[in-house]
Fold peptidoglycan glycosyltransferase.
Amino acid sequence: MNKQTIKKLRNWLQVHWRKPGPAARVTLLILAFLFLFPVVFRLLPFPELSEFMAQEYSCRIYDRRGKLVQVTALSGGGRREFTPIKQIPKKLQKAFINQEDKRFYFHHGVDWLAILRAITQNRRADKIVRGGSTITMQIAKSINPDKSHTIKRKLKDVFYSYRIEAKLSKQKILELYLNSIYFGSNSYGITSAARTYFGSDLKNLSSGQIEILSYIPRNPTYYNPVEHKKRFQDISEQAGRAAANARYYKYPYNLPHFVNYITSEYQKNNKPLPYELYTTIDLEISELAESFLREALEQAQGSRITNGSLLLLNNSDGSVITWLGNGDFFDNENSGQIDGVLVTNQPGSSMKPFLYALGIENNILEPSTVLADVPSQFGNDKLYIPENFNNRFNGPVRMRIALASSLNVPAVDTLNKIGVPAYLEKLYQLGFDSLKKNDSGIKADLGLALGAGEVSLYELVPAFSVFVRDGVFLPLQYTKTNSPKESKQIYSSDTARLLCSILSDKTARSLGFGYTQTFQTDYPSIFKTGTSNQYQDIVALGATKNFTIGVWMGNFSGNTVMGKTGSSLPAWVAKNVLDKLEGGRDPAELSFPEPEHWHKERICSVSGMKAGENCRSVVTEYIKDDTQLSTCNWHTLIDNEVQVIYPPEYQQWFRMRKVSGLVEYSQSKLSFITPKDNALFFYSSLNEQTQAIPFEVIGGSEPTLDVYYDEKKAFQNLERPFIFSLPVERGNHTCRIICGTESNEISFTVK
């Protein structure tokens, strides 16, 4: 508007407003109303419209390759997918405008000409043959809480229509309409309708399919192309052809446990699911893993194993590749809908690597360190007596073998030296938050060494991956839209590399598992398994440089597994999945790096010391650069014959196993092996005649021992090995021992 026009308008207003006639006043009021109407309506809050625009939509969930995993159902059933107007083809938009509202771009919410035309045609036909509602009015009807068929409600629809037009642009109104309108068969919106009837996305719809979709909203039941194909032959040839091929689409229902976890996370954070979610899942690998898991569960039916779960990670970023919560989601009899990835169970020996790694970090252990696998008692107020899986003891074993073969006594002894609080703190750093609940980790006490605390695969698998990631922990990531999570250095890179060396050592593993093919791979890999006390839970963990996998099998009913199945079945699943992922690759590409501050040295396989001239079995082991090994003094030449002289703590094992060699008694301080000072015992009336408290003593400079029970002599001149028993009597007691000039005393209580 130029200056001259503005001047003329101002002059006209001055003349006519000062001398207003009725026509001028009406004209000005109408102009003012038309100007103020949209402004006021735009500024006024419109809660009904806001609520409608915030309605629930389905979420299209894709895997990392763009394959559709699921389209989530609405809370009330059905599906409503959202597609931005820019992604809805123009020809589809035009088809709906032509069918529903030809003058859509030329009215302000109500098309009075269309209403008059509809009234005229309906009167002539003496029935309703045409509607006069615009696209905007159809939205108004949806948001109007009054669903009656009164004039008052229709006037409110008109009022709402004007308000909608004042609030939203034409493109936004069309977008809202096309994404909300009901198409029958539990499908809302054009995207869900295209998928429901034609299994197609919008960009691939044919002209005939578009024509059919534009008719359906008139009467979704009457114009259902699957149920009433012939009705579209009368509309057009292309519509008839499209209807002939219409089929109900079977929505994919992949990885339901994983999808449930995602939706629950959004709900927990009070966030709606996005319209589209691109995850890190790989459907192809997931289907392969699921086939192995189901096969293993079928094999285990005779052992009363009914449930299994699997979690597979990409080590480079901690992203989830496969999440299988159970073998069969729809197996209601065996609680198939419970997500085994999230359920906490006893992990058994699968926790031992974290303990031994901490022992290395604290300079308590090296792979060459010899640990005593002998009958032992730990604790004071709570007595803990661990045994191995096969109920045998192996005497002196190097830490490498103790971990790889999953021996129990050395693990408990290591935890006893480290301390439960320090170990728990490390486990918390690794993400084992389950151990914080109800102080379950603290209550497990020394049993933590053998996996007494309950944890989940969700925690266990990313924790295990730190060893192939140079000691770095990465939290799980399951969507591509997630911002990268902070990594944490849990163990030094050298410690992690040593653990990889041990857990991939087939020879070190043979003492506990033999040379089983379950752990044999053509590429560098590490494995660790675990079984709970009652064989209720069996776990296998495996990893390569690229992937980490965890498999759990057992049953949610709590029933004990029948037979000692060990961890062979879940280990078989883990190995087969890794074989498919890494098989055929150059092993050199997957090799684990060497620790930087350690060197290899020849050591005695029995004593773990530097190999001497009398050592018959020598192995090469990593030794810390600043460690000075002493030469083996266990192998000694006596009467021109090499003898093994064991330290005194092996006396009971030596006697039980009847191994060749000798036990050195005189070089150690006189002390009790069992029980510990201030130990607590409980009297049982069921076996009064057979109850006794076992004692084992080592050290001393003389060949015999005197024992005093509550200051009364119980044994005199007891010969080695110093192993004896005292009767069980309620009360507080003392036991004093004398060997030559040395003596020692402990107290204990029987309740």
